[in-house]
Amino acid sequence: MTPSQTVKFGEPLCLETGKVLPEFEISYHTYGTLNPDHDNVIWICHAFTANSDAADWWPGMVGPGLTFDTSRYFVVCANILGSCYGTTGPLSINPATGEPYYLDFPMVTIRDMVNAHERLREHLQIKGIHTIVGGSVGGQQSLEWCIMNPTLIKHLLIIATSAVFSPWGIAINESQRLALTADPSFYERKKDAGQNGLAAARSIALLSYRNQNTYNKTQSETDINKYDDFKASSYQQYQGQKLIRRFSAHSYWYLTKALDSHNVGRNRGGIETALASVKAHTLYVAISSDLLFTPEEVKSHVKYTPGAEYHEIDSLYGHDGFLLENEKLDQAIKSFYKRKSCCHAE
Q1: Containing domain of residue 239, as a range?
Q2: Has 311 been annotated as catalytic?
Q3: Model pLDDT, residue 1
Q4: Is 287 in the same domain as 247?
Q5: Catalytic annotation present for 290
Q6: Catalytic residue among 117, 155, 250, 319, which?
Q7: Which whole number is the average pLDDT over 141-153?
Q8: Is 261 designated active site?
Q9: pLDDT tens digits, residue range 166-183?
Q10: Is the pLDDT of residue 344 over 90?
Q11: Residues 270 and 233 occupy one common structural domain
């Protein structure tokens, strides 16, 4: 993982709920060089428990000569509010108390995350964004930003996400929060609180990130005489333990709440009105086997977004296909650029 940079903003950030962060920090990565016009920018919005090092978690997509070509573009990825990778979140110090916020941290929304991105954009003196792209929660940020500041961004790539989080998604998140809060240590004011609950929450989440066919193929048994210790069981345990080594239960709780509140139509007259304000060339990408953001849901937004296109990637891997189907995603994006006369030779 390459080193991140951090910038501290001493002025307050007013949140959508009316709460205020008196000061905040943003951790971010950049790759490539900003051009004299300050507009050769590709801004990547990361997903749920990811970090700002996009070249690390999206290695087939970010780098010299790749889809998001760091030899031609100034690529930016910023860690989101509420996370635990350097941007202000529940593990950060509350300036009013001198101690970490923990569960005293205010609720943040996707719109708040984008407002923080805007502060960073101004700090980096970026005047225009060639492409904004994100999958899942990253797609929510990308779409929100194109509505919030429609003339800033030329091209929008929104992958495996939607304009409003569904009741199905909220139910999955609430199940995860029940797992978090069933761990008594979750309420303790310490960095490693709630680890058992976090492992259980991750296990629940994985069922929505993949699907039955994925598990049947990747976790099937060859020993027909087994009674216990099945591959699928050990896989769930492994993924839970893997997450607790790198993430915070408190951040996980707050970020699920941010997902739940995602609705681009809030205080804008509804989703259709909000989507109609998008000026960027827009490509919606869905994953055929996605249970969390189904193709039907993604496609339903296309007709309300002026000039938007839709592409569906056939994949066994469900929602996680947006991170795994790099070759198919690369082809879809390059074809979209070509149709919009904005190929990478520009």
Answers
A1: 169-259
A2: no
A3: 56
A4: no
A5: yes
A6: 319
A7: 98
A8: no
A9: 999 999 999 999 999 999
A10: no
A11: no
